[in-house]
């Protein structure tokens, strides 16, 4: 075997090894993401109010999906928070607080926007699915932090009311890729409903603050 | 008989769930309730009906499913589910159990694909043949270690794509599977959520499906589990045996490798 053949053989062997390694590893991250988007479009059918456009991601959803399970780069996080902060709408009448009793009902209600739900009914926020809020309700989840004594601990000032409003309206403005839905931004709750939920958190008379 | 069992279970659920002062003690009581459920699982009724269906000639070709190849050779049921999803050369694709059952009903029994997929999730008035068949086949892997292989490139692709689907955020609520199943020690209301991104969580979560759901009085398959999770994610409806459902199942099943399969189970 001459020198040239040896080089060609070595090169071929290297290619084969690289090829095997690539096969062993499966598709690249970007390939898998593209294939997943394609498969999902082919695997769901619209039902009731849940149309296929729900599979089209906005920039926040796409970025959070891409970096899920990995560390979110600081610049990506900042971009997400800035864009969502700029999109927050504050109450037209200047009132952050509605009725905490209605807010409690909204916090308890888990329906809304599922294909099995009646779109004519107001949707809930299902706060208790993830948060402790009051002493009375022991059936609460732990995906989010406890919000018991939310206003009592932070004070009842306008700056805290504004922050609570923003957090309920669009949590991505404060914590990029949070698990919390953007209740106002996505149109899950109406402006009046957000006022009621903020009252549940911030009204001194609310059971949250007892 | 099932009615009586359900009534007793429902009474036990109420007795356990109502008067507790603290969430932790409530969680402890719920765990006791789950333990109590393990005696006398109505899933056995689905397993028995499924075995009968498996062995009985049916469809235009009047053939039984006893020659159905679940991956370990025609007719081998024992341990087959613990190695699924898997790549099937005859279909040239990755299939989960439900997809393979549809395949066998079409190829062996001569059913149309639409007939083979009909009524995948049953109700008390309209029992599902598929749920019974799945109960029988999965019951034949009880105690067998989960051993899904990614040797075939299409399995590796299904796994990688399934992982992306698991983390895919969408819909009005920005929910992904990972929203509820991405961290240890979380619950929704009082329901514990397995962290399916961890080995232990995937093993515990995956190896206990299918399950008899006390609240529904039906045995539910893993296809049902995914379908109903996506409903709650506010996504459109996941198609039965769709490619995305099989990819996601591949991701979860492989992560559960090493677990002793322990289903059909019983859940609240």
What are the SSEs and their pairings?
The complex is a heterodimer of chains A (210) and B (268).
Chain A: H1 3-25, H2 29-43, E1 44-45, H3 59-66, H4 74-86, H5 100-108, H6 150-154, H7 158-169, H8 191-202
Chain B: H1 2-17, H2 23-37, H3 43-55, E1 86-88, E2 93-95, H4 97-107, H5 113-116, H6 129-139, H7 153-166, H8 177-181, E3 186-188, E4 191-193, H9 199-206, E5 211-213, E6 218-220, H10 222-232, E7 237-238, H11 243-255, E8 265-267
Parallel strand pairs in B: 5-8
Antiparallel strand pairs in B: 1-2, 3-4, 5-6
Explained architecture:
- The complex is a heterodimer of chains A (210) and B (268).
- By secondary structure, chain A is mainly alpha-helical.
- Chain A folds into two domains: 3-76, no CATH class; 100-209, Cytochrome Bc1 Complex, Chain D, domain 2 (Orthogonal Bundle), CATH 1.10.760.10.
- Chain A is built from eight helices and one strand, in the order ααβαααααα.
- Chain A has helices spanning 3-25, 29-43, 59-66, 74-86, 100-108, 150-154, 158-169, 191-202, and one strand spanning 44-45.
- Chain A is globular.
- By secondary structure, chain B is mainly α.
- Chain B folds into two domains: 1-40; 41-267, Orthogonal Bundle (Cytochrome Bc1 Complex, Chain D, domain 2), CATH 1.10.760.
- Chain B has eleven helices and eight strands.
- In chain B, the strands form three sheets. Chain B has a three-stranded mixed sheet with strand order 6-5-8. A two-stranded antiparallel ribbon of chain B has the order 1-2.
- In chain B, strand 3 (186-188) and strand 4 (191-193) form a beta hairpin.
- The longest helix of chain B is centred in the first third of the chain and has 16 residues, at 2-17.
- The two termini of chain B are 18 Å apart.
- The model of chain B is unreliable at 1-5 and 7-20 (pLDDT under 50).
């Amino acid at each position: 075997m001459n020198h040239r053949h040896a080089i060609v053989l070595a090169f071929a062997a290297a290619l084969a090894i690289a090829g095997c390694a690539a096969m062993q590893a499966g598709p690249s991250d970007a390939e898998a993401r593209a294939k997943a988007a394609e498969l999902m479009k082919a695997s769901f059918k619209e039902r009731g109010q849940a149309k296929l456009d729900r599979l089209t991601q906005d920039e926040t959803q796409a970025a959070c999906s891409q970096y899920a399970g990995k560390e979110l780069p600081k610049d990506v996080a900042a971009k997400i928070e800035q864009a969502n902060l700029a999109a927050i709408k504050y109450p037209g009448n200047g009132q952050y607080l509605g009725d905490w009793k209605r807010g409690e009902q909204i916090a308890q209600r888990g329906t809304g926007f599922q294909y099995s739900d009646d779109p004519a009914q107001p949707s809930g926020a299902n706060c208790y699915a993830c948060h402790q809020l009051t002493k009375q309700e022991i059936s609460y989840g732990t995906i989010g932090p406890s919000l018991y004594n939310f206003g009592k601990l932070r004070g009842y000032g306008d700056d805290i009311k504004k922050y609570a409003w923003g957090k309920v309206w669009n949590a991505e403005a404060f914590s990029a890729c949070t698990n919390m839905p953007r209740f106002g931004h996505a149109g899950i709750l109406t402006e009046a409903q957000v006022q009621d939920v903020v009252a549940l958190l911030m009204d001194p008379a609310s059971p949250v603050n007892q | 008989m099932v009615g009586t069992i359900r009534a007793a279970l429902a009474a036990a659920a109420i007795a356990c769930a109502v008067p507790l002062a603290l969430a932790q003690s409530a969680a402890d009581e719920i765990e006791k309730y789950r333990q109590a459920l393990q005696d006398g699982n109505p899933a056995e009724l689905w397993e028995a009906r499924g075995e009968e269906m498996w062995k009985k000639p049916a469809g235009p070709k009047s053939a039984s499913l006893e020659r159905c190849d679940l991956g370990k050779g025609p007719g081998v049921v024992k341990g087959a589910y613990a190695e699924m999803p898997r790549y099937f050369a005859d279909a040239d694709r990755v299939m989960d159990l439900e997809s393979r059952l549809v395949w066998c009903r079409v190829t062996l029994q001569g059913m149309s694909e639409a007939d083979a997929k009909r009524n995948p999730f049953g109700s008390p008035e309209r029992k599902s043949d598929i749920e019974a068949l799945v109960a029988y086949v999965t019951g034949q892997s009880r105690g067998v270690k989960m051993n899904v292989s990614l040797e075939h490139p299409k399995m590796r692709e299904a796994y990688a794509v399934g992982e992306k689907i698991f983390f895919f955020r969408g819909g009005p609520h920005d929910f992904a599977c990972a929203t509820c199943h991405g961290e240890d020690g979380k619950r929704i209301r009082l329901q514990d959520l397995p962290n399916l991104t961890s080995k232990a969580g995937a093993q515990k979560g995956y190896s206990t499906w299918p399950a008899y759901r006390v609240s529904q009085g039906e045995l539910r398959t893993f296809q049902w589990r995914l379908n109903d999770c996506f409903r709650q994610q506010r996504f459109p409806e996941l198609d039965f045996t769709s490619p995305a459902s099989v990819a996601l199942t591949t991701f979860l099943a492989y992560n559960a490798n090493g677990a002793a399969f322990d289903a059909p189970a019983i859940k609240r």
